[in-house]
Specification:
heterodimer; A: alpha+beta; six-stranded mixed sheet; 6 helices; B: alpha+beta; nine-stranded mixed sheet; two-stranded antiparallel ribbon; 5 helices; 17 strands
Chain lengths: 174, 270
């Protein structure tokens, strides 16, 4: 279960990379659509939907993960912006590649690294879906990454909640 | 939501959480609570209690009502055979169960007759007993338990409630002039007798000299142990030592109506 979800999340994060490459190099997989409409961007819009579709599916999958309790926290720290730089780097790399072989090799490496790191859980799509990223220190002094739609502020006003365990350090409130 | 966690080495790990009840709740109204006394053997509906448990040295953080299971790592499949105990979080009660190798049922073979009869091998499973070794009730801050020996690996330090005598205390006790050892050494005294020495030896030390003399006279008559020419007890086995310690706790008595000599293996001060 966890494996499938991580695969989905990884796909969702790197799909931006793929989309930018396709758009930048004007690669059109569906010429019949643009031919009929007369606009190139209709296909690109279709491409742009891809990260959101996979991201949306990941959120749905999260609801099947095992639950844990988060009853008391000692520290809440927003980390929304920490990871964004990583994603912007993707964009620039994708823009500078012209050659298909180079692209697929770099994409393969990116998938590999993202899959085995925690970056895959920080997906800009989640931000657009209204999720926020927090570093939270639990009552037992364990630092975890919490993905939640709530706007968490102070540990005092934190209400105990059930969270989904994505891995030992990452939890999502869905 | 109910959760089950397991202790591996010094660390607790998260196992599973679910909405169904994992175990029957301990119904406080149906049980008889008793303060712990080492000399007493419990009936089925009786539990020892430790009120104010959160103030004790051997209190475990796991018992705190605001404990977050999100702080725990998830157990891995290779860890299961190292589980020393499980804890079930359910309805403000925390159930503790010691895990011994016999609780793993992976080698059994069954006939499964739920559909067409077929021979099936047991899958890797860990048995959850219907009755826990200890239950901590959050609202009362009270620990309910039946046997200190079973929960000492769960709450390290709790064995102080029923400790074993140290080798020095055993040596002191066996060095009393009313005891002679025959083919038996102070070093080979077993766990149960060490606990008895810790309890009864200390009680004996607090008696007045007259009472001590009377008690030893009583033991000579009742304990049915061979005496040396000087009137000392000839201790040659664990059983002899147990009989002497029981006698020193005045557990031998005569039931005059039934005309029987008896020994009480469980006593409680009324």
């Amino acid at each position: 279960m966890n494996f499938i979800l991580r695969l989905f999340m990884t796909m969702s994060s790197v799909s931006f990379f793929l989309v930018i490459y396709l758009v930048h190099n004007k690669i059109d997989f569906f010429p019949f659509i643009s031919d009929r409409l007369g606009y190139d961007w209709a296909v690109y819009l279709l491409y742009m939907l891809l990260p959101f579709l996979i991201g949306g599916a990941s959120v749905k999958l999260c609801k099947l993960l095992s639950k844990s309790d988060l009853k008391k926290v000692e520290l809440i720290e927003s980390s929304n912006n920490d990871f964004l730089a990583n994603y912007l780097a993707f964009f620039f790399v994708a823009l500078s590649i012209k050659d298909a072989t180079t692209f697929w090799i770099i994409l393969g490496l990116a998938v590999l690294f993202i899959f085995f790191s925690r970056v895959s859980y920080f997906n800009p799509v989640f931000l657009i879906f209204g999720f926020n990223f927090f570093y939270v220190c639990t009552g037992e002094k364990v630092k975890i990454l919490l993905i939640s739609r709530k706007k968490l502020r102070s540990p005092e006003s934190f209400e105990g909640t059930g969270v989904r365990r994505i891995n030992d350090y990452t939890f999502m409130e869905v | 939501m109910n959760a089950l966690i397991a202790k591996i080495g010094r660390e607790y790990k998260s196992v599973v959480s679910c909405d169904v009840e994992i175990i029957d709740n301990l119904t406080i109204a149906n049980i008889k609570p008793l303060a712990f006394t080492s000399s007493y053997k419990l009936d089925e509906d009786e539990w020892f209690i430790l009120p104010g448990f959160s103030k004790k040295d051997y209190f475990s953080d796991i018992c705190r009502s605001d404990y977050s299971t999100a702080s725990l790592n998830q157990i891995e499949n290779g860890n299961y055979n190292q589980i020393s105990c499980i804890v079930i979080f359910q309805n403000e009660q925390k159930n503790f169960q010691r895990i011994t190798p016999s609780r793993f049922v992976s080698k059994k073979r069954f006939i499964d007759f739920s559909g067409q009869p077929e021979v099936v091998d047991q899958r890797n499973q860990l048995e959850i007993k219907p009755e826990s070794d200890a239950v901590y009730v959050n609202d009362e801050d009270t620990l309910y338990f039946k046997d200190v020996a079973k929960i000492k690996c769960i709450f390290p330090g709790i064995e102080i409630l029923h400790r074993e005598a140290t080798q020095a205390e055993v040596n002191d006790f066996l060095g009393n002039n009313f005891i002679v050892l025959e083919n038996y050494e102070a070093a080979s005294v077993g766990t149960f007798n060490r606990k008895r020495i810790a309890d009864i030896g200390a009680k004996y030390q607090n008696l007045t000299t007259d009472k001590k003399t009377n008690l030893i006279d009583y033991a000579r008559k009742k304990a049915n142990i061979d005496l040396s020419d000087e009137g000392a007890f000839r201790i040659s086995s664990e059983t002899d030592l147990k009989k002497l310690l029981w006698a020193m706790d005045q557990r031998y008595y005569y039931a005059d109506i039934y005309e029987e000599d008896r020994v009480a293996n469980s006593v409680k001060v009324l």
